[in-house]
């Protein structure tokens, strides 16, 4: 899991338009795995959650994003 703090580069211009200029806090937590289906084929699956929170004059706003994926991978052997 990782957390960070972000300050908008355009905060001064955003303030004129009424957008919050305070720092935002957020982070994400990925999890995933791989399973061999055969010698050359693998299945990958994973989840990732991201969240960002910003203080505004109305309280704290939150943005939450969740992503899931499933993929099949193949490997090729070159040479003799």
TrEMBL record:
Domain of life assignment:
Bacteria
Please report the name of this protein according to its UniProt entry. Answer: Uncharacterized protein
